């Protein structure tokens, strides 16, 4: 018999060799119908994998992240199986599950191009194969046999991957029908659970992400266990297109990109710059009770700085390369992180235990090289500004300071209406500890400090291995927007390693020298990404205090332009942001155009308004309409702003 421990702490005994599916069946037939995979001792595996020792188990449905990943991983294989039948001789690269669906990189036979026109026949073939309910069979193979097998199939990319990347004794294949793939799993037990299928897009992708290698065809898709789920997803996709921050940002004149300036380098236009500055001022206001000291550090640093911090060893190959100066052997780098600079700020003078916590903040612009194909509006750029801070604390202060940062992030989310979020504890990969710095003891201490702080704050969390920073674990806040999409925004990280690498110290109460602990934190994450998410969450309808233009003044004809100027001057004096649309257009056209710019209020001025010193107010979206004095209108706007910002000082 083996003892199986469930997430709630309860324990049941089963015969040795029991499977996840059998355990689900022992609980309820409904659960067994809906479960797609299981977690055994923290590893996600198939439902038919035998359990031969005492273990903990989690049963995952499609709704769970692990369940979706398994479902979509099998769907990627189903796509490949369909492509193999439709395009004999096709070559396969990698085909993983991603956050929303899956993709497969393929090399079609010479002279064949796969385009959007082919999506219907690919979907039809996938549905045909899924209906066969083919079992997915796992097999462990030796490296030599795997190379021989995939050479016989003519799959050169797979052979290269096996030869260069995989160790003997760790290789598995999965077979369904006539298709066999090299894969670590896990997978569904069969393809029959895949009921609704949509191929969503096609793009180019270099083999292994190397621009010097051949370009493959990347086919994206998504699947669901029910057609209704697919229908809902497609509606969400249409809504997402309307909310695309690139489209809205252009309409609202917030930011731009220029090929001449360079890919992935956003230019903030005047309206976007004002929005960005208001975000910064808001955060300064939130931070005021916490005694942060703001600094400004250079946009470049000596290569040696990042060698000391460990960033060069871990990110150097994938970053902008060192800048060589006229001085021999002198090298600088574009700043990839603010933390090494802040370590130097700490080290500039002796510190006492009484000086801690020391909270150093910066709106620091950093530079990271992203491949061209991965750039996307403001969410994936090559330069961005972090609302960064590094808090240097004594070990006994870690938990309390960590909890303070949780409070700050939760306040920021409340201000912007992000009510649906959870926290992800990102841990190191226990199977690949070489890519991290620091001892096991330090990592255990850091990870447990985060867990304890989250428990005390009553924060809903889940843990993910392999997502930690190279220098320490972190708490990432995953926010769901208005249409249900998941975004990573705020982050907090505990770091015992960088202070050691920089030989930071403080004088303890007993006069001994101690090393501080460093907490990294960014409530927004970055101003670019946060702005993009906020645009898509609100569809560009920002809170009144934040929106670049609060009011559009629309004179009915050019006869009333002078009165419009008087109105604007009055608004300026009363801290109401406005502009005049004095184009020679009919008032209906002006209203439609300013609706597109998502201006919260329009005030229309004509003969009556000019004669009586009034404005006719119209709310965005055809809401409230009324005529009032300029003073009453300004009070209305300012009262609403004050109400929206009340939460900041609570």
TrEMBL record:
One of its GO terms (biological process) is threonyl-tRNA aminoacylation. Binds 1 zinc ion per subunit. Residues 1-61 form the TGS domain. The keyword Metal-binding applies. Residues 244-555 form the Aminoacyl-transfer RNA synthetases class-II family profile domain. Keywords: Aminoacyl-tRNA synthetase, ATP-binding, Cytoplasm, Ligase, Metal-binding, Nucleotide-binding, Protein biosynthesis, RNA-binding, tRNA-binding, Zinc. This is Threonine--tRNA ligase. It comes from Prevotella lacticifex. The lineage of its organism: Bacteria, Pseudomonadati, Bacteroidota, Bacteroidia, Bacteroidales.
């Amino acid at each position: 018999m083996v003892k199986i421990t469930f997430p709630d702490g309860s324990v049941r005994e089963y015969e040795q060799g029991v499977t996840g599916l059998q355990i689900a069946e022992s609980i309820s037939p409904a659960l067994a119908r809906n479960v797609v995979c299981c977690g055994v001792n923290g590893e996600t595996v198939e439902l038919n994998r035998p359990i031969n020792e005492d273990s903990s188990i989690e049963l995952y449905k499609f709704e769970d992240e692990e369940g979706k990943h398994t479902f979509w991983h099998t769907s990627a294989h189903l796509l490949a199986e369909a492509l193999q039948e439709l395009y004999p001789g096709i070559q396969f690269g990698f085909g993983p599950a991603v956050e929303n669906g899956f993709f497969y990189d393929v090399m079609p036979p010479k002279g064949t191009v796969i385009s959007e026109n082919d999506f219907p026949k690919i979907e039809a073939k996938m549905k045909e194969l899924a209906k066969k309910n083919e079992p997915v069979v796992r097999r462990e193979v030796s490296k030599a046999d795997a190379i021989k097998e995939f050479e016989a199939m003519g799959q050169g990319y797979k052979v290269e991957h096996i030869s260069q990347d995989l160790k003997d004794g760790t290789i598995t294949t999965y077979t369904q029908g006539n298709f066999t793939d090299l894969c670590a799993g896990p997978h569904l037990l069969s393809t029959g659970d895949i009921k609704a299928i949509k191929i969503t897009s096609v793009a180019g992708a270099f083999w292994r992400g190397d621009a010097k290698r051949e370009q493959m065809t990347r086919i994206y898709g998504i699947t669901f266990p029910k057609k209704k789920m697919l229908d809902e997803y497609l509606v969400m996709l249409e809504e997402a297109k309307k909310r695309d921050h690139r489209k809205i940002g252009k309409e609202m004149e917030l930011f731009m990109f220029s090929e001449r300036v360079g890919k992935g380098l956003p230019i903030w236009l005047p309206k976007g710059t004002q929005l960005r500055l208001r975000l910064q001022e808001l955060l300064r206001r939130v931070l005021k009770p916490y005694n942060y000291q703001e600094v400004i550090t250079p946009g470049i640093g000596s290569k040696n700085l990042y060698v000391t911090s460990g960033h060069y060893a871990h990110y150097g190959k994938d970053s902008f390369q060192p800048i060589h100066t006229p001085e021999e052997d002198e090298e600088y780098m574009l700043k990839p992180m603010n933390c090494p600079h802040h370590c130097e700020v700490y080290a500039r003078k002796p510190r006492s235990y009484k000086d801690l916590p020391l909270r150093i903040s910066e709106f620091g612009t950093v530079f990271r090289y992203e491949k061209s194909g991965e750039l996307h509006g403001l969410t994936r750029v090559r330069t961005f500004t972090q609302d960064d801070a590094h808090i240097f604390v004594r070990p006994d202060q870690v938990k309390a300071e960590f909890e303070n940062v949780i409070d700050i992030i939760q306040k920021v989310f409340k201000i912007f209406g992000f009510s649906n979020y959870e926290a992800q504890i990102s841990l190191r990969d226990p199977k690949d500890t070489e890519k991290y710095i620091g001892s096991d003891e330090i990592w255990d201490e850091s990870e447990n400090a985060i867990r304890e702080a989250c428990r005390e704050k009553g924060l809903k969390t889940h843990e993910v291995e392999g997502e930690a920073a190279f220098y320490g674990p972190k708490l990432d806040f995953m926010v769901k927007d208005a249409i249900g999409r998941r975004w990573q925004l705020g982050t907090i990280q505990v770091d015992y390693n960088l202070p050691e690498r920089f030989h930071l110290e403080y004088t303890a109460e007993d006069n001994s020298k101690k090393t501080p602990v460093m907490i990294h934190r960014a409530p927004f994450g970055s101003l670019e990404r946060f702005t993009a998410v906020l645009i898509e969450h609100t569809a560009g309808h920002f809170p009144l205090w934040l929106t670049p233009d609060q009011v559009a003044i629309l004179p009915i004809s050019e006869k009333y332009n002078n009165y419009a100027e008087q109105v604007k001057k009055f608004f300026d004096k009363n801290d109401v942001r406005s502009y005049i649309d004095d184009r020679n257009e009919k008032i209906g056209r002006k209203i439609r155009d300013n609706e597109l710019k998502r201006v919260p209020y329009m005030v229309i001025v004509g003969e009556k308004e000019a004669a009586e010193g009034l404005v006719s107010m119209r709310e965005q979206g055809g809401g409230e309409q009324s005529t009032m004095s300029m003073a009453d209108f300004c009070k209305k706007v300012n009262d609403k702003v004050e109400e929206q910002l009340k939460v900041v000082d609570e």
